[in-house]
Fold this protein.
Amino acid sequence: MQTLALSSNTVHTCPAPAGSTIRVAQGVIWFTAAGADILLNAGQDYQLAMDEDLLIQAMSDARFSIQIPAGQQTPHYARRLRDWLPRLSLG
């Protein structure tokens, strides 16, 4: 599990396989999953029902994590997540 930080109004994309859980520790994030707009506040989480290429926007300064379930991380997602992480401001 990796904790990520986004500044307010920052947008990033992130691949995540089905079963991944997005958990917000601070702030508010918005993303679309399974065709629905999801707004999560600090203390809330959401489990993905299908593989997603997430577009995540911080509605305020936010810290959140994406936990990929054991056995679900494929080389495709691992490579894309590895390439995506250095672009974030980790705190």
